[in-house]
Amino acid sequence: MAIPMISEADRLRREVLAYVIKAVKSGAYEDIDRIPIKIRPKGQPFSRCCIYKDRAALRYRCMSALGFRVEDEVDELKTLKSYAEDIEANPPASDPFLTIFPDACSACMESQIMVTNMCRGCLARPCTNICPRHAIQVRNGRATIAHDLCVNCGKCAEVCRYHAIIQVPLACADACPVGAIGKTEDGRVTVDHEKCIRCGKCIKACPFAAIMQSNQVAHVVRAIAKGKKVIALVAPAINGFFPTEPGKLYAALRQIGFAHVYEVARGGDDTAAAEAAEWAERKAHGAPFMTTSCCPAWIECVERHLPEMKPYVSDTPTPMGFAERRAKADHPDALTVFIGPCMAKRTEAHKHGGPDYVITAEELGAWLIAENIQLADLEPSEPEVAGTQYGAEFAVSGGVANAVAHYLPEGTPKPTVFKINGLNKKNVALLRVFAKTKKAPADIIEVMVCPGGCVGGPCAITSAEDAAKTIQKRRPTDFQA
Amino acid sequence: MDERITVEICMGTTCYVMGGAQLAGIADRLPEEWKDRIAVKGMRCSGACQQGDRVGRAPFVRVGGKLIAEADEGKVLAAIREALAH
After folding, report:
1. In the prediction, which pLDDT does A111 show?
2. Which of A90, A124, A154 is the endpoint of a domain?
3. CB contact burial A428-438 (16+ within 10 A = b; e otherwise)
4. Exposed/middle/buried for A478, CB within 10 Å: 0-12, 13-18, 19+?
5. Can you tell me whether residue B53 is helix, strand or coil?
6. What angle do the packed helices A361-370 and A8-26 form, to 10 degrees?
7. What residues of A are in contact with residue B28 (Cβ under 8 Å)?
8. Min Cα separation A444/chain B (Å)
9. pLDDT tens per residue across span A176-206
């Protein structure tokens, strides 16, 4: 069993967010300029080449936590305090929300197969036999790979008895499902925002945390501090991330200043009901299949890479879309904040003109740290708008299709389901085949770009498996899976 | 008297968000031969995260009464090994 891991990069990001939130809330903006020194005090261990580079990287991390993109920096001497002051008058950075600090990038070598000096130039030479491109020869007692012929299939690495051949990954580019990651001339990471589907996999993958996102939590904290009425739209995945019942988390949200709490699970119920009706109608008109529409990174993937898939994607608004509509109808004077584990929801909100802000589970976690809230001590409180367990399970792979099946009109035959549980280069190609041949192995293709579903999102707090278990434990006895 | 060594994982919010969430399932990952000598449980916030000025010291875990800062799987297992040796 794999041990669920949290990396030092995750911890650092959360720590920075917690300090930034604390300073923004209290108005002690000058504290933000001290964060790099607070985290890397002199004489203490550091992680990069020297303490000064650590501090420089932390400064940019603070900048992105405040809602700015590193690329937008004009004056390197501009203080973090002055960025914090800019929050009052300026909205957070807009799409694309990815931001790169190139000097943090280690300029890793391209993904490739490499023969290490463990190679003994053996007699058997399975590597030379298995290579489909005849790219390996043994010279001077050691296997050598002709890199112009090698296609990185990795077969030689599998057969070597000495584990002498290794596949050297390029973490960010290998994680990207759509080939949006490139390199500058000096080998540093670049992201092609025309190709990028906003999934955030590269952020989690980069071992140097050179790829970051511009956050929005500082703007939300300020809005609440200024007395604005702010509504929390809580994604179902969030209720898998904290060691408490949902009611305690809602109590915490009220304590930190949200006026109302809406479960996006209710939006999930709305989406499922509408998508069920849509499928029944499409099927009556002879549609070969339909894909779900709730995952915004999937929608970006279709827009940017699979235009032929467009006719088969459901037109139904997402759970966030329904929740936003409901909240704004109930409270036209309020600001709405979606809280979820997803990067791409920011882009969805940007395109649809709402919710006003999107913050992540990590940003919420850091906020609770900043306010020193002990969830266990709170009296649970009810959300203004609650969803069913079917809506709540939108967060878990399989849950969307299950909810759609649940809401089908009486007498409609149960659709068959094919799940994409985590998008990668291979299944993008497969989906392209479905669209081009107008044929798929099932009626409904449920696409979740993150492995495990939203619970496996790039800004999650626990492992996808643990979060899914937590959510599924709440199933009522009459729940149909 | 129960002579098992207690491993208390802090379930306070700070510890949980800073990595305690990933330690919560450690009981299932202990070596077989340790299982009846170790009792893993959650603990309430000990307040340790509020001392000093860095939340980066979280998560905290207490093994046989001894508090471990910046706890991870390796540190906790090492502390258990040491406690078992005594």
Report:
1. 87
2. A90
3. beebeebbeee
4. exposed
5. coil
6. 60
7. 1
8. 34
9. 999 999 999 999 999 999 999 999 999 999 9
Q: Which residue of A has its CA nearest to B14?
A: A369
Clarify whether residues A315 and A376 are in a common domain: yes
Contact A378, A277 (CB under 8 A): no
Which of these, A408, A33, A347, lies nearest to A197 by C-alpha position?
A: A347
Q: Do A243 and B55 touch (CB under 8 A)?
A: no
Same domain? A415 vs A275: yes
Q: How far apart are CA A210 and CA A208, in angstroms?
A: 5
**Residue ranges making up the domain that contains B40:** 5-85
Q: What is the pLDDT of residue A151?
A: 92
Q: How far is A18 from chain B (nearest CA, A)?
A: 8
Q: Does A427 lie in the same domain as A297?
A: yes
Domain that holds residue A408: 219-472
User: In A123-245, where does DSSP find H-type helix?
Assistant: 126-130, 155-159, 171-175, 201-205, 217-225
Residue B20 belongs to a domain with what CATH number? 3.40.30.10
C-alpha span between A44 and A366 (Å, rounded) = 24
- If DSSP codes are grouped into helix, strand and coil, which group holds residue B13? helix
**Residue A100 resides in a domain:** no
Question: pTM value?
Answer: 0.94
Q: Are A70 and A125 members of one domain?
A: no
Report the Cα A183 to chain-centroid distance in Å.
Answer: 22
CA A67, A72, A76, A78 dihedral sign is negative
- pLDDT of residue A302 exceeding 70: yes
Give me the half-sphere count of Cα atoms (radius 13 Å) on the Cβ side of residue A153.
14
Which residue from B11, B24, B55 is facing A18, i.e. has the nearest CB?
B55
Give the Cβ contact number of residue A326 at 10 Å: 20
Question: How many Cα atoms sit within 13 Å of A73 on the Cβ side?
Answer: 20
Question: Distance between CA A204 and CA A413 in Å, rounded?
Answer: 40
Q: Identify the closest residue of chain B to A36 by CA–CA distance.
A: B54
Task: Strand B5-10: give its sheet, edge to edge.
Answer: B38-43, B5-10, B61-63, B66-68
My answer on whether A265 and A406 are in the same domain is yes
How far apart (Å, rounded) are the C-alpha atoms in residues A24 and A59?
15
Task: Quote ipTM for the complex.
Answer: 0.92
Q: Rg (Cα) of chain B, in Å, rounded? A: 12
**Residue recorded with tokens 């603070």:** A62
